[in-house]
Design a protein that fits this description.
Distance between the termini: 41 Å
CATH class of one domain: Alpha Beta
Number of strands: 7
CATH topology of one domain: Rossmann fold
Strand content: under 5%
Largest sheet: 5 strands, parallel
Oligomer: single chain
Radius of gyration: 35 Å
Strand order of the largest sheet: 2-1-3-4-7
CATH architecture of one domain: 3-Layer(aba) Sandwich
Structural class: mainly alpha
Helix content: 55-70%
Shape: flat
Order of helices and strands: EHHEHHEHHEEEEHHHHHHHHHHHHHHH
């Protein structure tokens, strides 16, 4: 079989202990010429990136000789652990190679019932009821939860003894034999290391002699080179004088050409200034018209127009202002203004119920019609809002139309998929209907993963990583922390892969934001040190940009991590 053992555990409880046990089993009694003593399957180290997780886990179970259950109340309640135990029981005739490592909770055996006392047992999943013929031996690692992670190594005598018990079972040898073999292999390694050290010392002495001889030869070569360089310098000075004469002639010619270019540039600037003046005149005319509408609706002089009239509208003090502005845009045949105002009318508060829904749909559909082949971004925005407003089966049709607006532009399609997923996630977070939450969550998962696939096809690691990051945050804070952690672990290496491509000055803000995202996810699923390092990289960039708000925000995040135990 490919693996000696399969480790089944809860990420939340044994996220540190499981890797330590796996590493210790790899290194216990390991010959110096082998990479590991035995191969042990653990999901975070044995799975590559794949859209289907469970088939890969089943394959790992089928390829493993032993099953190691890290028993705890959290593992007993985990659907993943229960499924892994069921799969092992279905594929094996006995539990002779089913090992239990107790990390939290209790395990009690009932002699009369010849089964576990399920009233007192909290660390085992219930699908092990009536499966054991007699009380099984198990390793008790509960003490390991109270020691620092650095002490979870073979240098700790207590940890070494418990690992030796597990290893003796996997190797089918006695505990004394296994510990003796570990000591013997350690001595062999020290001997080999000593021999290698002696050989390296001999090579160093030989290299020193060769270096002395090489230095002598180098001094002779430098002397020869200096003589050649002096000869070359004289020839170069002669050529330089000749090139200066040619450069003077070229400079005079370029001066004449530059004068002609300046004349053409002056004419172009004059044309641009005239066009800008005409545009400002047109804008001033439109602003005057809207200002008159504002004064007419509020019966007061213009106060801070145009920045305040939308606030007045939102406060309900100028009913019908957007309708009047839309009418003015229709009169002046300003299509761009009509599109933006129609979308604003559809977004008005209360436009998602009753007759207001029909009104909003009509506004969005008119915006789609006007923006088609004119303004793809506005067409996409209106189609997505139509899907949100109508919901149910109609939504998917409008979402498909939104994705297809940009034709065969994969990067744009991916951006639309991400926008749909984010708006659905926001809607899912705000609803209190549990059934609606579940339906929306499935659609959020679908659109984020479709976006990640689209970015993957065009080789955009940054877009793919950000899609998985958004999906991970959605799961982590709303539904399933383990599922969220899984997508964080997919996202981090993709964003790290994209970092070299963001080194230009034009991408500095994007680079800093990427470091922040990596830091946030690392603080949850990886290490505090890695998160702090990423935050500090972001802090350096924000200092160079002079962004004081982000500097304070990142410093606060670093302080919180450094104070965390």
């Amino acid at each position: 079989m490919s693996y000696k053992a399969f480790i089944s555990y809860s990420h939340a409880t044994d996220g540190q202990l499981a890797p330590a046990i796996q590493s210790a089993l790899h290194g216990f009694a390991k010959p110096f010429y082998r990479l590991r003593s035995v191969r042990v399957f653990r999901d975070e180290t044995s799975l590559h990136l794949t859209p289907e997780l469970w088939p890969r886990i089943q394959q790992g179970l089928n390829d493993s000789e032993y099953f190691i259950l890290m028993a705890s109340p959290q593992a007993a309640a985990s659907k993943w652990v229960q499924n892994e135990v069921d799969a092992w029981l279905a594929s094996r005739d006995s539990l002779d190679k089913f090992l239990v490592v107790l990390t939290a909770g209790e395990i009690k055996w009932n002699e009369e019932a010849a089964d576990f006392d399920w009233q007192a047992t909290t660390a085992l999943p219930t699908n092990l009821k009536s499966k054991f013929k007699g009380e099984p031996l198990y390793s008790d690692f509960r003490w390991a939860r109270d020691i620092p992670p650095a002490q979870l190594s073979l240098r700790n005598p207590k940890f070494l003894r418990e690992i030796g018990r597990l290893a003796s079972t996997l190797h089918q040898r006695s505990l004394n034999d296994m510990i003796g073999e570990d000591v013997r292999q350690h001595r062999v390694f020290k001997f080999v290391a000593s021999v290698v050290g002696i050989l390296l010392m001999a090579l160093s002495i030989g290299a020193s002699g060769a270096a002395y001889y090489a230095n002598q030869r180098r001094a002779e070569a430098i002397s020869e080179r200096n003589r050649a360089e002096e000869s070359t310098r004289r020839e170069r000075e002669a050529r330089k004088a000749e090139e200066e004469q040619r450069a003077n002639a070229i400079f005079e010619q370029e001066g004449a050409e530059l004068a002609a270019v300046r004349e053409r540039t002056a004419r172009l600037v004059a044309v641009q200034q005239r066009q800008r003046a005409e545009e400002q005149t047109r804008l001033a005319t439109n602003m005057k018209t809207v200002g008159e509408l504002y004064r007419e609706a509020s019966n007061i002089e213009a106060r801070g127009f145009p920045n305040s009239y939308f606030e007045e509208y939102q406060g309900g003090r100028i009913p019908g202002l957007l309708e009047r502005i839309l009418a003015k845009y229709r009169e002046t045949k300003d299509v761009t203004g009509q599109i933006s105002t129609l979308i604003a009318l559809g977004d008005k508060p209360g436009s998602t119920s009753g007759d207001r829904t029909n009104t909003a749909v009509k506004r969005y559909e008119e915006a789609v019609s006007l923006s088609h082949h004119r303004d793809p971004a506005s067409e996409v925005a209106a189609l997505i809002r139509l899907g949100e407003t109508l919901g149910a089966g109609d939504a998917e049709d409008y979402y498909r139309r939104a994705v297809g607006v940009y034709g065969k532009e994969p990067s744009k399609e991916a951006e639309v998929l991400v926008e749909i997923a984010r708006r659905l996630a926001k809607k899912t977070n705000s609803t209190t209907d549990l059934n609606q939450k579940v339906r929306n969550q499935e659609r959020v998962h679908y659109y984020f993963t479709k976006a990640a696939e689209a970015y993957h096809q065009i080789g955009d690691s940054w877009g793919e990583g950000l899609s998985y990051s958004d999906l991970g945050h959605h799961y982590f804070y709303q539904f399933n922390s383990e599922r969220g952690a899984y997508y964080f672990n997919l996202s981090i290496p993709l964003l790290e892969k994209a970092l070299p491509g963001l080194q230009g000055k034009e991408n500095r803000a994007k680079l800093a934001r990427t470091f922040e995202i990596i830091a946030t996810m690392s603080s949850i699923v990886q290490s505090r040190e890695k998160a702090i390092q990423a935050y500090r990289s972001a802090l350096e960039i924000y200092r160079a940009l002079g962004n004081n708000n982000k500097i304070k925000e990142v410093r606060d995040a670093i302080d919180r991590l450094e104070k965390r135990n």
